[in-house]
Design goal:
- Two copies of one chain form a homodimer.
- Chain A is 61% helix and 11% strand.
- Chain A has helices at residues 3-18, 21-29, 37-44, 48-60, 81-89, 100-113, 120-130; strands spanning 35-36, 64-69, 72-77.
- A three-stranded antiparallel beta sheet of chain A has the order 1-3-2.
- The interface between A and B is large, with 48 and 48 residues.
- The structure holds a DNA duplex (30 and 30 nucleotides).
Chain lengths: 131, 131
DNA sequence: TTGAGATATGCAGATATTTGCAAATATAAT
DNA sequence: ATTATATTTGCAAATATCTGCATATCTCAA
């Protein structure tokens, strides 16, 4: 298989993982801290099973890593830089049927909120754990 | 609806448009030239109907624009910069079941091939047509 | 045993693929 | 010019496949 085809397939797989609002929210929430299923459930306001299933998808595609502490399982991003790239993608969304003006301001606010700096100690931990 | 939710939804929609290998190939092929259905059909090696339907999806979400010249309809990207961003995304794909080494070299080659510079005259045309 | 989380099942809705046809436009012949 | 023909593109219906969600069940550690 030519490499263009291979990469197009893998990219498509990757995008399909990102093509759900809850998974995007999860990635954004994990941008600068690690969280357990319970915290995510409260933040997102969906069932614990739902959170768990979306985490399973993210885990299966190696976007997140887990580690147990006490009786909780905490999740972190494999590549925290992904959030920067993801926020850049907001540039390309276009209004479908929703109010164009509202979308613009929402985009600006989301970019700001999801762009706050990654905690240094956390970054250190990431590096330690990723090798 | 809180703006985070709105943006997450719109981003998810956007990603779902990108979550098909043929549409990714089309976007990549349109990076520095405009093409008609026939050319795309030859390049991609799929049925003309298939090309047409994927173009319809891209058009419906305003990723491409069309204009007729002679007997052909030519398609161009609304935001050529999107290809740069898309190529950056290759960084985050991880091998699933396929050979890891092969994926790495394929990624490098695709990044190179899909990163060749945009023709200046074309960029000028884009700017003229996009206002 | 209790609490946190993962997994299995089944259903509903969405999405892709194929096939065939319709509409529009160009080309050529008369 | 008019008619016939071929090309290009869009569209629709049928089928198959994928995805998400809810409920229930299961595992593991404290």
């Amino acid at each position: 298989m030519p490499h263009r085809t291979l990469i197009a397939q893998q990219l498509a797989r990757f995008f399909s993982v990102l093509s759900h609002p809850v998974r995007i929210r999860i990635i954004a929430e994990l941008r600068n801290s690690e969280l357990c299923v319970n915290s995510l459930q409260e933040i997102l306001g969906i069932s614990h099973s739902g959170v768990s299933q979306h985490l399973a998808t993210l885990r299966a595609h190696r976007l997140i890593k887990e580690h147990r502490r006490g009786r909780n399982v905490f999740y972190r991003l494999c590549s925290p830089e992904m959030v920067t790239w993801l926020v850049d993608g907001i540039t390309f969304i276009t209004p479908d049927n929703s109010d164009e003006e509202r979308l613009r301001t929402a985009a600006a606010m989301a970019k700001e909120q999801w762009s706050d700096p990654i905690d240094d100690r956390l970054l250190f931990e990431y590096e330690a754990l990723n090798k």
